[in-house]
Amino acid sequence: MEIVIYKKQKGPANELEYILKNEGCSVTTKLFDETAELDSIKEIRPDVVIFDEVSPDFHFLSFIRMLRSESSLCPKIIAVSSSFLPDDAVDCFIEKPFSRADIIREVFGAPEITEDENTLDMEIIVTDMLHKLGIPAHISGYRYLREAIILAVYNPEILDSVTKVLYPSVAKRFGITPPRVERAIRHAVEISWDRGLSPYLFALFGGAVRKKKPSNSEFIARVSDDLRLCYKNEIKRELDIRESCRLHAQKKRKERQKKKQ
Q1: Would you kindly state where each structural domain of the chain is located, as residue ranges?
Q2: In the predicted model, is pLDDT for residue 24 greater than 50?
Q3: Are the C-beta atoms of residues 41 and 30 closer than 8 Å to each other?
């Protein structure tokens, strides 16, 4: 799913972006000001356009009208803010602070998704695992390794293309280059291996801990596979929910296209 997020000011990726990217969405962020134009998103053809804390002024309302009148575009329009917007300006409104379930429900248009159905927080689980493996949180490889493991848990096939797909995916998430991701992850793995004090490291790799250090892909594969086995049912349910949301969003997009014709 293609999503464009308009923000009132530049800044690092926030919780909203992370949730959407974690759900497999392709997210493009743009600055919303008086120079914002539709031409910049026509090539993207987004399924959803989100305005994050954008003031409902005259320019905003004019932009919305142009967006709705553009025949080549028919996205769902969402506003995320701590203050309300006019009811007829957007398709739905998400008030801050929001939950992951709020985002999934409104962005994918799937009201059947509830907070109870999204209890598996893989980020917390992987974070705990990295701590057990003795990888310090202050190094950049810690963040990149966590992201790589999460991607591999939900999509094991990505490990078949570590250089061409996995590293670029992590790099895009953090706005850096794939080689930098590879080096930082290698450093994180080296720290964990050189310390060799973690009982969990022995549980994962056994006697190999005293032998040659694994490659990045071997390390990510072993950790992600262990998680996949431990949380097999929860991950299957999570993937089923994502697929249900994707199909629901696809259906809603076709309905909007039909109304526009």
Answers
A1: 2-115, 122-230
A2: yes
A3: yes
The pLDDT value given to residue 108 = 74
d(CA 11, CA 100): 21
DSSP for the chain reads -EEEEEESS--S--HHHHHHHHTT-EEEEEE-STT--THHHHTT--SEEEEES----HHHHHHHHHHHH-TT---EEEEEESS---TTTSSEEEESS--HHHHHHHHHT-TT--GGGG---HHHHHHHHHHHTT--TTSHHHHHHHHHHHHHHH-GGGGGGIIIIIHHHHHHHHTS-HHHHHHHHHHHHHHHHHH---HHHHHHHGGGGGSPPPPHHHHHHHHHHHHHHHTHHHHHHHHHHHHHHHHHHHHHHHHHHHHH-
Residue with tokens 């014709």: 261
Any idea what the Cα angle at residue 242 is, between residues 51 and 251, rounded to 5°? 70
Q: Could you read off the pLDDT of 127-160 as tens digits, one per residue?
A: 888 888 888 889 999 999 999 998 898 888 999 9
CATH no. for 122-230: 1.10.10.10
CATH H superfamily, domain 2-115:
Response regulator (3.40.50.2300)
Peptide bond into 97 cis (omega under 30): yes
172 — alpha (psi -120 to 50), left (phi > 0) or beta?
A: alpha
Of 72, 13, 95, 20, the residue nearest 246 (C-alpha): 20
